[in-house]
Design a protein that fits this description.
The structure is a single chain. Helix content is 16%, strand content 37%. The protein is α+β, with helices and mostly antiparallel strands and 201 residues long. The protein has a single domain, classed as Jelly Rolls. The strands form four sheets. It has a seven-stranded antiparallel sheet with strand order 1-2-13-10-15-8-5. The chain has a four-stranded antiparallel sheet with strand order 9-14-11-12. A hairpin with a 2-residue loop joins β3 and β4. The protein is globular and about 40 Å long. The two termini are 31 Å apart.
């Protein structure tokens, strides 16, 4: 994968947060090839989360890859890392060049159609540290990404996550904001999202 020039990004206007959007760190050709590679070669599974004491299948497929021993727990689910693939390492290196953070793990989500989603949440699990840096890369269909402030319902923000884009969340973002990918009535093809993280435990 060839090196890219330093991408241009913009900071979202959000209080209590540091969120940056880079719309094209991967070209259209790269994005299409990477989507196909990831869809076919990642070891996807459908996990179930516990809500009100009942196991409910997540409305998306997931996978967890990373350095040995970097397990991760969220929504009552604990996952052990699969070893990095050549493709994931290449994506990670491109993302690290922008984020300037050495990531040791990645959570992949495969939204197969417009009915797959992720509900309101923050990436604030203890193993992510005090002010986690989350680098979110998207391939495939464009999907709407929404923010809402935890203490002020009037503070909201949203943007379209386009293929090849990077959304970087850092600082106190996870302390004050939740985010989601909502279901939609508009027909969508598949989307694969990679959220690179640092696990400290």
């Amino acid at each position: 994968m060839p090196d890219a020039e330093e991408p241009l990004g913009e900071q979202l206007t959000m209080p209590d947060a540091e969120v940056f959007f880079y719309p094209g760190i991967f070209s259209q050709t790269e994005s299409e090839a990477l989507f196909t590679d990831l869809a076919n070669n990642v070891r996807w599974s459908q996990q179930s989360a516990v809500f009100a004491g009942k196991a409910v299948p997540l409305p998306r497929l997931t996978a967890w890859y990373g350095d040995a021993g970097k397990s991760y727990s969220y929504s009552g689910i604990t996952v052990q890392p699969k070893p990095w693939t050549e493709t994931l390492m290449a994506i990670k290196q491109r993302v690290e060049a922008v984020a300037r953070v050495p990531f040791n793990s990645v959570l992949l989500n495969y939204y197969r159609n417009e009915q797959d989603s992720v509900s309101w949440h923050s990436d604030d699990e203890p193993e992510l540290g005090t002010n986690p840096v989350i680098a979110s890369v998207s391939f495939g269909a464009t999907r709407k990404f929404q923010f809402k402030h935890k203490h002020n319902n009037e503070l909201r923000s949203e943007l379209e996550l386009t293929p090849g884009s990077l959304l970087l969340m850092q600082g106190t973002t996870q302390h004050f904001w939740k985010h989601q990918i909502p279901k939609t009535k508009q027909s969508h093809g598949g989307r694969i999202n990679l959220t690179f993280r640092v696990i400290y435990s």
